[in-house]
TrEMBL record:
Gene Ontology terms describing biological process: lipopolysaccharide biosynthetic process
Protein name: Glycosyltransferase family 1 protein
Xref: PANTHER family: GLYCOSYLTRANSFERASE WBBK-RELATED (PTHR46401:SF2)
The keyword Transferase is annotated on this UniProt entry: yes
Keyword entries, A-Z: Transferase
Organism lineage string: Bacteria, Pseudomonadati, Pseudomonadota, Alphaproteobacteria, Hyphomicrobiales
Pfam families tied to this protein: Glycos_transf_1
Amino acid sequence: MKFFINGRFLSQKLTGVQRYAAEIVKAIDVLLGSEQTPASLRNADWQLLTPMDASEQLQLERIKIRAVGRLRGHAWDQIDLARAAAGGRLISLANSGPVFHRDHIVVIHDAQVFRRPDFFNWRYLTVHRTMGQLLARHASIATVSGFSRKELAEVLNLPATAIPVFPNSAEHFARTKPDPGIIARLGIQPQHFFLYVGSRTKNKNLSVAIRAIELLDRPDVPLVIVGGDNSKVFQDNSGDGASGLLLAGRLTDSEIAALYAQASAFVFPSLYEGFGVPPLEAMIFGCPVIASRADAVVETCGDAAAYFDANDADALKQLMLERLATGALSVQERMTQQERVAFYSWKKSAKALLDHLAEPATVASAA
């Protein structure tokens, strides 16, 4: 039996989807050396197939890494990868893959291209809508949350029961050693700033956080914005020029960890998510979380966050004021956070994927 993993994510810029793929692959690699792997998979041949322009590398012991083909991007997926993976079962973890592979499971992280077309430019929208529809007809679809399963079932005309869920996790961030020097480098005071981490794209709804900090009108408590811009794909939502902001740009994980540990609260105002990992990262470091009521975010955070309507900047401002007055998390709040973080793990998700692979292969074709 042969299993091939789509390694195109190693040639892409690291975002949440690429992080998910890398962590799942590493967890599978560990599980393959244990008794937790289903017996039918233990003697299988596992290969991670990568394009020639892969810039990232994974240290794996049981999964062989093999560069194949000469093409790039979607062309590599549809031609080089499809050819190299012929005769085996293919696993694509990052939203896309060859649409006509005969035995293929694809993790699609959310249904944004169908539910919120206003977030994307027309070219990206056309490619990914078409790909999603074709994959729904020719591959098995999986996803990362109950919310995304419901959304994908509706937009792709699939039975929800046929879409397995292999959730994200934030435990990789627990291995990150904070770099406290970032506080001085940014010229901010511990416990006197709010934190936003993410791309400056329309679905992230940064404009509401910016409006809330303006309403707060506390020059001594800025909103620190960490992350880059990707307006070539998404409709721009930069917020440049607004008062009360500190645009930190791209930072290392160690710097971000220190900001989580010292922020008054982490603000997550998203309009739409398939899961929502950054709030869990914040919880690892005991950072209070103020998040929108987007369905997937509530599913992920449970009772470990304070919530506001994503379009209500005044409600966000009120929660900011309450957090400033309350200060650090209580013992009970910290315990609730820790329980929520522990609910998700890459090992559990990888084990669920392996168990699914051990079942007879089925394809839930779109109606």
